[in-house]
């Protein structure tokens, strides 16, 4: 049985049979700047400016991006949904 080790996700390995499904689920969970801006209905420039903790009006800690895959800013969809649910309640 061959095992696939992915360099962009440390510690992630899977059998080749379920690899495509597993990586698609992980990639769908992580959102890029453009996807998050579209999801939150706000301009991309505003999201980038407010994602810096030293900005005048920073994003709440729950909405700060996770940095993965080099310099790309990525957000976890679950954390965004959690934050939006906490605002509604």
Brief rundown of the structure:
By secondary structure, this protein is α+β, with helices and mostly antiparallel strands.
Question: Mind explaining what this structure looks like?
Answer:
This protein is of the alpha+beta class. The chain has one domain. Helices cover 43% and strands 16% of the residues. The strands form two sheets. Strands 3-5-4 form a three-stranded antiparallel beta sheet. It has a two-stranded antiparallel sheet with strand order 1-2. A hairpin with a 7-residue loop joins strand 1 and strand 2. It is globular.
In terms of topology, how is this protein built?
Layout: E1 3-5, E2 13-15, H1 19-29, E3 30-31, H2 33-40, H3 44-50, E4 66-67, E5 73-76, H4 77-88
Antiparallel strand pairs: 1-2, 3-5, 4-5
Backbone CA Rg: 16 Å
Shape: globular
How much of the sequence lies in strands comes to 15-25%
What profile does the largest beta sheet have?
3 strands, antiparallel
- Average pLDDT figure: 76
Q: How many domains?
A: 1
Number of helices: 4
* Total count of strands: 5
* Cross-sheet strand order for the largest sheet: 3-5-4
**Structural class category:** alpha+beta
List keywords for this structure.
single chain; 89 residues; alpha+beta; three-stranded antiparallel beta sheet; two-stranded antiparallel ribbon; 5 strands; 43% helix; disordered N terminus
